[in-house]
Hints:
- The complex is a heterodimer of chains A (about 250) and B (about 300).
- Chain A has six helices and 13 strands.
- With about 250 residues, chain A is of the alpha/beta class.
- In chain A, helix 2 packs across helix 5.
- In chain A, the strands form two sheets. A nine-stranded mixed beta sheet of chain A has the order 9-8-7-10-6-1-4-5-11, with helices on both faces. Chain A has a two-stranded antiparallel sheet with strand order 2-3.
- Chain B has about 300 residues and is α/β, with parallel strands linked by helices.
- In chain B, helix 2 links the parallel strand 4 and strand 5.
- Chain B starts with a strand and ends with a helix.
- At the A-B interface, strand 2, helix 3, helix 4, strand 7 and strand 8 of A face helix 4, strand 7, strand 9, strand 10 and strand 13 of B.
- Flavin-adenine dinucleotide sits at the interface of chains B and A.
Amino acid sequence: MRVVVCVKQVLQLGDEVEFTADGLDVDPDYLDAALNEWDSFATEEALQLRERLGGEVVLVTCGAKESEPALRRCLAMGADRAIRIEGAGGDPFSVARALAEVVRAESPDLVLCGVQSSDAVQAATGTALAELLGLPRTAVVTSVDYDEGSRKAVVDRELEGGLRDRVEVDTPAVLTIQTGINQPRYANLRAIKQAEQVEIDVRSTAGGGTPAYRVRRMFLPARGGGAEMLDGSPAEIAARIAAIVKERLA
Amino acid sequence: MSVLVVAEHIRGQVRDVTRELIAAGRELGPVTVAVIARDPSALVGAVDVEGVEEIVTVEVAAAEFENDAYQAAVEALVASRQPRVTLLGFTVNSMGYGPAVAAKLGLGFASDVHGVVLEGDAVIATRSFYGSKVSAELEFPGAEGVLLLLRPTTWAPAEGPGSARVSSVEVPAAPSRARHLELVEPAGSTDVDITQADFLLSIGRGIGEQENVERFAGLAGKMGATLTVSRPLVDAGWVPAARQVGQSGKTVKPSVYLAFGISGAVQHLAGMKTSGTIIAVNTDPEAAIFSVAHYGASADMFGVAEELEKLF
Ligand SMILES: Cc1cc2nc3c(=O)[nH]c(=O)nc-3n(C[C@H](O)[C@H](O)[C@H](O)COP(=O)(O)OP(=O)(O)OC[C@H]3O[C@@H](n4cnc5c(N)ncnc54)[C@H](O)[C@@H]3O)c2cc1C
Ligand SMILES: Nc1ncnc2c1ncn2[C@@H]1O[C@H](COP(=O)(O)O)[C@@H](O)[C@H]1O
């Protein structure tokens, strides 16, 4: 079977921030890149399906060359090949449109995305992608039982409060994978080195189409009513915490 | 400026988020609430609150939520009524169909929205980026309507008796490609009920290694607190799910919530932000948890824990 996994290189902000001159985004100098946590669980799930049923795991990302480390991390976990798409906008619909072109051509049996990207928290790209591909989909999946014979999967959706909704979904389908569904494997050093040598298939997209949204202004949230900060040595901080706790519980 | 709110319900109960959506929607314009269910009439009363002009029911076959049925119903309502704004909760159900409806109909779209205003005829939504550390105002150029997934527990639920007109709309059944089978309860716990405790000591990924959990469990014991955790510690199998605070865990409201090494992701805050006194210790002075905490310390949790051990 062929499983396509959509992975994103996310950008994390440290404790300092500057905005770009146009005020529409954070200055990239203040951002560190990492593989989106959810996508490592999606990749692991795909690898486990391949181990059981054979076939291949294909990675796709939308982003500039700087986003290739995310692909290489997943290659080091054991994925077979990787495609990077250049030229799409950053909103979830532009990304989904670019992904759809490439994913459709792969004729996958399953497409796995993460529930959300940790930097943008949209939980939108996978479901939009399913719509563009005309595929069934289930969001926030915590277990996958795929039956090759009937081409159906029984999956659990995790609802608020931890309640699970068991769903039977026709495949091919798009599933958005929740953390905790498995324990993503670590890549060993040799695999990491080998992944450095893999050639990434770079495609480009013309882009276009209406974006989901356009950022008009980015800014620091007002810290009004924020926390009173306790300063000093660990001992001083601990003493203040102890006093507050004792007073509140008295 | 008409507003369509999609009610969310499970096991015959309308979820709280629905009245929060109504509260957000009635600030923007006349609100129509869509109730999509096998037996919608049983749910109408719960959404007939002040500010709702109309309730429209759509009968579907499935006993619980299915995304194809919801998608077909909402698409039909948007097509026939042309609301400027369609509001859904930023919930697991909405994640399964909201973006699909918007992508298909060419609507503007944003999720985890925590502010909406009108500027003339234009809808401006506010949401966060980069681990909730920065905010952004979004506009929706070129879109006739917008569909927004609003962050739960942000608007106070609409109250007061309503007098909405009720009508029903028939929507041709869509073939359901992802079918509800059954609801499965999370594994129960006999050992602890964190929702009953008055003092919670909560640890997150800042703990680093599994070995360190025991140390904080010990500190909690000394301080008379119940140990709780953020989701990654449950995902890793270090702590049972019964101790997880947040949207997919438990909602808690102790007198004191003392958080160590928790960043303050939106799904964690959803489960604890109404606690009496929130104290947070995090090495990152810009961590989002400080936006809901009453007291904060930008410090190493291990150093502070070591000193606290001496005081209890
Ligand atoms: C549908 C859905 C449901 C979810 N439900 C939940 C839920 O119920 N509960 C939940 O918690 N999450 C939930 N999540 C996950 C959530 O989005 C976050 O991923 C999670 O809350 C992050 O946990 P964390 O803060 O412990 O980890 P991180 O975000 O990794 O933060 C770790 C923090 O520790 C700090 N730190 C590191 N070292 C130290 C040190 N030595 N001393 C002090 N501080 C230190 C860091 O600065 C950082 O702020 C859900 C996600 C989804 C998509
Ligand atoms: N630029 C991207 N390239 C590939 N996949 C992406 C990209 N952005 C988002 N995704 C996928 O969509 C999921 C949800 O992201 P989001 O909708 O941004 O919260 C991620 O976990 C990925 O699987």
